[in-house]
Amino acid sequence: xxxxxxxxxxxxxxxxxxxxxxxxxxxxxxxxxxxxxxxxxxxxxxxxxxxxxxxxxxxxxxxxxxxxxxxxxxxxxxxxxxxxxxxxxxxxxxxxxxxxxxxxxxxxxxxxxxxxxxxxxxxxxxxxxxxxxxxxxxxxxxxxxxxxxxxxxxxxxxxxxxxxxxxxxxxxxxxxxxxxxxxxxxxxxxxxxxxxxxxxxxxxxxxxxxxxxxxxxxxxxxxxxxxxxxxxxxxxxxxxxxxxxxxxxxxxxxxxxxxxxxxxxxxxxxxxxxxxxxxxxxxxxxxxxxxxxxxxxxxxxxxxxxxxxxxxxxxxxxxxxxxxxxxxxxxxxxxxxxxxxxxxxxxxxxxxxxxxxxxxxxxxxxxxxxxxxxxxxxxxxxxxxxxxxxxxxxxxxxxxxxxxxxxxxxxxxxxxxxxxxxxxxxxxxxxxxxxxxxxxxxxxxxxxxxxxxxxxxxxxxxxxxxxxxxxxxxxxxxxxxxxxxxxxxxxxxxxxxxxxxxxxxxxxxxxxxxxxxxxxxxxxxxxxxxxxxxxxxxxxxxxxxxxxxxxxxxxxxxxxxxxxxxxxxxxxxxxxxxxxxxxxxxxxxxxxxxxxxxxxxxxxxxxxxxxxxxxxxxxxxxxxxxxxxxxxxxxxxxxxxxxxxxxxxxxxxxxxxxxxxxxxxxxxxxxxxxxxxxxxxxxxxxxxxxxxxxxxxxxxxxxxxxxxxxxxxxxxxxxxxxxxxxxxxxxxxxxxxxxxxxxxxxxxxxxxxxxxxxxxxxxxxxxxxxxxxxxxxxxxxxxxxxxxxxxxxxxxxxxxxxxxxxxxxxxxxxxxxxxxxxxxxxxxxxxxxxxxxxxxxxxxxxxxxxxxxxxxxxxxxxxxxxxxxxxxxxxxxxxxxx
Amino acid sequence: xxxxxxxxxxxxxxxxxxxxxxxxxxxxxxxxxxxxxxxxxxxxxxxxxxxxxxxxxxxxxxxxxxxxxxxxxxxxxxxxxxxxxxxxxxxxxxxxxxxxxxxxxxxxxxxxxxxxxxxxxxxxxxxxxxxxxxxxxxxxxxxxxxxxxxxxxxxxxxxxxxxxxxxxxxxxxxxxxxxxxxxxxxxxxxxxxxxxxxxxxxxxxxxxxxxxxxxxxxxxxxxxxxxxxxxxxxxxxxxxxxxxxxxxxxxxxxxxxxxxxxxxxxxxxxxxxxxxxxxxxxxx
Lengths: 882, 284
Hints:
The complex is a heterodimer. Chain A contains 7 helices and 58 strands. By secondary structure, chain A is mainly beta. Chain A folds into 3 domains: 21-105, Phage tail protein beta-alpha-beta fold (3-Layer(bab) Sandwich); 121-200, Immunoglobulin-like (Sandwich), CATH 2.60.40.1120; 225-881, TonB-dependent receptor, beta-barrel domain (Maltoporin, Chain A, Beta Barrel). In chain A, the strands form 14 sheets. Chain A has a 22-stranded antiparallel β-barrel. In chain B, 11% of the residues lie in helices and 43% in strands. Chain B starts with a helix and ends with a strand. The chains are: A mainly beta, B mainly beta.
């Protein structure tokens, strides 16, 4: 019985093989429609690839695709065309399935030639890894030769390069959510091999964290790095069902905030302004909408999110605590596709349009909240006149000029608008534009050149019967950067580049138009230039140790025109100690700061499933968010370091252990870190920073320290998957100036606003049935610190509350459970839809955001607890793809 | 800036429904710092200086500082005594601060501690109140009843080419019978930073009930920069307390100190003010 089944199986297998072989042979006989004109060899090969299923692999060193060839007729077979092209060039092709490898023709006399040069000891295979569905380049995909235990990751543009000894290999490529691909590689010359990975059977796939990601943690030398993709973000239960990048980041260890409505996030004890947030390389200066409820990143257009929490690579700089590097999708090169979502709060739509198939595409994505449209239904005119919404718009155009050059243009524009019955009109938002050029110099050298514009501004308009008060402020920057990656060989990779940022700070300008008694009021603008050069070397020492070391040098120039206040030496800076002003002319150097930022990473693969990593990094930050509020608000302004405010510097060391077990179903990691910050900017108690011409009188600089332990357990496969994270952390500040007014808490260390000793986060997903998915997100953390009043006194008709020490008490503990249920419809070939039902704060926990002291009469003050999202928020959303 | 506060108040109002009283331990700590509330003006009248002590945040009253000796000395050698009329309230005879004179306030408490202010000089003359106008701000309450509110605006011409710091205090009365300004009067401050040299309209941040507050008397005073910083800081801090994202208040610098123990923190301020006044009658 079994023998007969085996026999049958062998027959089928043999038949299949014969059929495949016949198909391949037939493909070579297929006629190609091509014009009998003189044209580049590259064009001819491209025509063959388009009209057949064949793919070419060749080295630029042996085949110049720009060289022209004239074909004798229109309908030639593939074989005839190749012979026409290759024979005169003394080249031949070798077929491996659907892959045609072009190589030098064997010289039959060469065996007798004693003068033959020595054979090269290595060749390079390089190319782009992309999705077969839409041509989207895949960032961080693995390209691996298992026989040699060597592999690389594609860079931010999908490029990889592997230099290996000559030989025959099986090249494997994998990426989260895509099927692994294996291709035979006969490496006897430098080759370009572009890879296209097919999507996994997406909708019903229960695994969001694949073993590829696990491999990342075990094999890459970088540590303190978290990676999320668009699907993971969309599947995390969220407030009002609105999938959100920052809310997803908050499920990770070491990432926290002060509570709901906090306008940003804190990484390992860093302030909100210590995160470098990049959207397609452009810095984003305010990452949230609606005062922190939602982030500015449309989840439908997000392709890849990387958060560096500590081991920040040398190519990044300018912030102390983290880099959040977000790339939007490039847009499908294959077919028109779209994605959308309608929820209780907003509608979102993303369209991907191939302009020229396999060469150029356009992404357009937008969203807008519509809750304010309900105002229009009100009977009350005052309510009808209210406005409260945000919108944003992303676009990205990419054009593949040729195999070695690719151009990207991307842009973002978003705005929040609040209008209260013509009493006040307030709006704020970001705008960015990025022009990028990828160039492949050769198989080993890749470069990216970018020109970047970024702007954040706000506008506050207050109409009156006689005129309008118009208050504007913001920050604008223009940036040039050029990054290179040199894949010397699998053991050595060198990253290097330059970067220059020109800043234009507009701290505040108030204009009164119309018939008004108010004068123009303006806080002086600031200009600055930040230049950087860096190099970083990744070196594999044997099979188990990877060393990464790098150096970044930064130089910051504060430029005129500006009038700088001078203060008495050895006196506190205040209005009484002013001695005069010094005026600086346009572009005159006011002051400069510079320094080296060393980076070091060491990874030791203790066994196949265990890795130990160490990292040290120093970072400098030259620009500061001037804020004295518990949470970030839109009117906070950015300011340059200068005569009176020094740049901040941080040093961080971290040590981690990573383990996979149970056939890679589970991943466990423990990381510990210690970070020290020098010249940390703090505000004096009760400071008034708004439209302050001389904020140096309200700011003081001290130092900070943050240390902690992060534990993470992930389950990567099966119907149930997710992670449990626990963080034990401490974040402290110390301000111990020379004068009493330059001390906080008498110069002792005190906890930062967002210091949380214990944080526990649980994110689980479970496939209930074939099309039903359940997710739960639970968070618990120690209450954050707050300042308790010490006493009160009366002056006139006013009661003044006094505070003795900052942040010496704690709010009660924070915990919350969010649930979601997703039903994926069967859909059709052209339309797939799913419903998402979610509940935020499922058991209606009234978490304390802050405690303040309210008056119920003129003299009495009562402690009052403020909870922002103190009830259950159910939501429903419909998502679709076509 | 008040516009900014207005904006933040709006967002705070979104949260109001999520507030609840809470017991916080540690609020009943007692405190015992001397508080001096002294405003001496160019108006020829009885002036009052209030002495009290700071107290725990949960207390409903403020301890009075009784049995103190309180007097002013000017640079001409004149002494103005203040006698304790009510506990903690010290009254002068009818007297006015003189332009160009420099005054120092002395307080000797019952336990013998001597407190003295920095010298303060009465300079400048306040621009007259050019116009007092009221406008209707009536609204319908939750029961559908019309509540007739009025708001009052002060018009003045700010002198050009000089810094001016304004201090307004006002009181309403149904009969128009006003006593001497005391600690029950409402107050406001502003500087001419944004309107120097212009005619300006200042709106009082109080809604007056037409049927009750038929007369409103308003004093307009000019004060020096330091007094303005102190008074405006109090106003800003009180505004911030209602918006629970602002930092805790800073200790406000007084212009008084303990002669024997300079490290002792004294609360309050000795304000010297040049004043003018006017009264408006609200139409029913």
